[in-house]
Every structure is written in C-alpha cells, then in structure tokens.
Design a protein that fits this description.
The protein is of the alpha+beta class and about 90 residues long. The chain is about 45% helix and about 15% strand. The mean pLDDT is about 85.
Length: about 90
C-alpha cells in the first residue's frame, strides 16, 4: 500500500508507483468523492487531460473520425456504468 503525507496547505504527492500504474501525467485531473464519510473512505478517479490525449492522436495518420467517435462512445458508456454502479451501492 502506498501512502503520502498532507502538508499544511492540504497538498500531497501521488506516490510514483500509483502515478505509473494509472498513467497519471501532468495536466490530468483528479476527481475526489467521499464514499464513506464515517470511515474516511475516498474514491479518486483520474481524468486524463483530453487536450494532451487528442493532440498526440492527431499525429497518427490512421486516426479517423470514426475511431475517435467510437473511443468517445466507449468512454461515455464506461462512465454511465460506473455511475449506475455507484448509485446501486447507495
């Protein structure tokens, strides 16, 4: 289990093993949600920087509108499943 310490200003560093495992890069956002307040349990999701992601893909000559649209649909479907799952746990 990886740990980090919170500073006086509320800052912390994501341990390198976690950053590598989840491919967290500069510009990514972290979405924080309290899951069980009484136990201090958080859910943290990585929201990859879409500009950086798409900027890199534009250099790929095989990228088509259809591929990008399919990727976007997959992301939306995954988010909907996560939301339904979270609502079912409530």
């Amino acid at each position: 289990m990886a740990t980090s310490t919170v500073s006086k200003k509320g800052l912390t560093t994501i341990p390198s093993k976690i950053r590598q495992l989840l491919k967290i890069k500069t510009g990514d956002k972290l979405e924080w949600q309290v899951v069980r307040e009484d136990e201090g349990v958080l859910q943290i999701r990585v929201l990859q920087d879409p500009y950086t992601f798409l900027r890199g893909k534009r250099k790929d000559p095989n990228t088509t509108y259809e591929k990008v649209e399919h990727l976007a649909d997959s992301v939306i479907e995954r988010e909907a499943r996560r939301e339904r799952s979270a609502n079912n746990r409530s």
